[in-house]
Fold:
Amino acid sequence: MMWKERYRIGVDLIDNQHRELFRRLSSFIQVVQNEDPWDQKLDDVKSTLNFMQEYVVYHFEDEERYQREIGYPDYEEHREAHAKFKEEINEYVRLMEEEGFTEESIQELAARLMTWLIMHVGKADQRIGEYAKSREGME
Ligand SMILES: [Fe+2]
Structure:
């Protein structure tokens, strides 16, 4: 489990979804790395990847809605970062559909997902929480 308490932004809905993302991604990485033969676990790998693609979209929508609700000033920039990431995953998956879901390509994707998630949740999403807090102080 790669989740850390310092990733919390103080908004339950978002924190719970982030925790779930980390949980799913960790178990995805475990399946990718376990000793089972690749052919045997490929279906499992694919369906987990599929789930994560859908969950990421769902989570981004919720997080963006929350930003609009609180009038988050860097909304556009944040939305763009989400859109870019979605595109990147889709491109990875599209390439793998063409060239095959190899162990190497999945490992690379899993590492990329984890790096992005840590960076994004650890930095960009923190600023949403900070803004939400400063706003509470104004009310
Ligand atoms: Fe975000």
Notes: The chain has four helices and no strands.
